[in-house]
Amino acid sequence: MSDRILVIGSSGQIGTELVQELRTIYGVENVVASDIKEPHNEQNGPFEVLDILNKEQLENIIKKYQVTDVYLLAALLSATAEKNPEFAWNLNMNSLFNVLNLAKEGVIKKIFWPSSIAVFGPSTPSINTPQYTIMEPSTVYGISKQAGERWCEYYFNQYGVDVRSIRYPGLIGYKSKPGGGTTDYAVDIFHKAIEEESFECFLSENTTLPMMYMPDAIKATVQIMQAPKENIKIRSSYNLAGISFSPKEIAEEIKSHIPNFSISYQPDYRQKIANSWPQSIDDSSAKNDWHWNPTYSLEKMTADMILNLNLSLKKKVI
Ligand code: NAD
Ligand code: SER
């Protein structure tokens, strides 16, 4: 049987773009989008309202569409999770168990579940962070991702569940707004630069973090899911790197397109989260095992973001 895909959390920052790409590859009818909330964009294929914590609802949708592969994107991200740690733990862990158990029971064949650079903590070497290193996350989000990685590996080793995972860096795209992370500033900065030519940043000017342009993140997601099973040698989660920059560096790059752009800094509670994360990532395992190779530099990403945000602004005016 060909791939029938269910994307859970499809109305979010990644899901909005991933569903489009998966539909291009696998066909519109073979990719079911689902979320606890209605999508903000027009759907060109099947969509179901689904609360991932409701296992019966999940099973019914999987049965209805004969789903083989699940992409589980529903989660609370780092900043939002700190405001409601118990709820974040419940959502981030039990969503994963619901999907892992369906694979264990043989109901679905393959799972994509994203981890994050948040699995690392203040004691992790922060430059070129290795795949295997000290991991003592200090946020509830990071703790849930680290535990999730352990469970993914456990389900693979004990039950042969084909679960694949990437530790995404902070993601930047123009098609959707981010959903409550510490790296969200790197998306907001573009919107403010274009609309108001000024931006107040909630991180300090030299806070360097690992980041990635959304087309690269989508490419990596498709690549790891299409790779032959034997190439996926890491069943916890793969380090993945794109670009690393600070608020000051991205502001400088934006200024080369919008000379009047100005930035000010007002660090808040998210500064502490950012300080606990790496500055850059060693992703040689992903490169070796499934031929990962990023396309976008800071310069190329900035030019593309500004071009596309300007185009959508013009469309709105017309
Ligand atoms: P997001 O917050 O933008 O989207 C998450 C979606 O999940 C939302 O549309 C939300 O409505 C939905 N959702 C929440 N609770 C749900 C429930 N009970 N049932 C069904 N849907 C529910 O998040 P995102 O940025 O698209 O991230 C997707 C995944 O990637 C998450 O696991 C996140 O931890 C991971 N990740 C994201 C980034 C990033 O920079 N965006 C970086 C690292 C990892
Ligand atoms: N971008 C995410 C966040 O800031 C990292 O997982 O929460």
Describe the structure.
The chain has 318 residues and is an alpha/beta fold. It folds into 2 domains: 5-170 and 212-239, 3-Layer(aba) Sandwich (Rossmann fold); 172-211 and 244-280 and 297-317, Alpha-Beta Complex (UDP-galactose 4-epimerase, domain 1), CATH 3.90.25. Helices cover 43% and strands 15% of the residues. The chain contains 11 helices and 14 strands. The chain has helices spanning 13-26, 55-65, 78-83, 85-104, 140-159, 185-195, 214-226, 247-255, 270-275, 284-290, 298-317; strands at residues 5-8, 31-35, 47-49, 69-72, 110-112, 115-116, 162-164, 166-168, 170-172, 198-201, 209-213, 238-239, 243-245, 262-265. A 6-stranded parallel sheet has the order 3-2-1-4-5-7, sandwiched between helices. A 3-stranded parallel sheet has the order 6-8-12. Strands 9-11-13 form a 3-stranded mixed sheet. Strand 1 (5-8), helix 1 (13-26) and strand 2 (31-35) form a beta-alpha-beta unit. Helix 1 (13-26) packs across helix 7 (214-226) and helix 6 (185-195) runs parallel beside helix 8. The termini are far apart. The site of nicotinamide-adenine-dinucleotide has 29 residues, from helix 1 and strand 9.
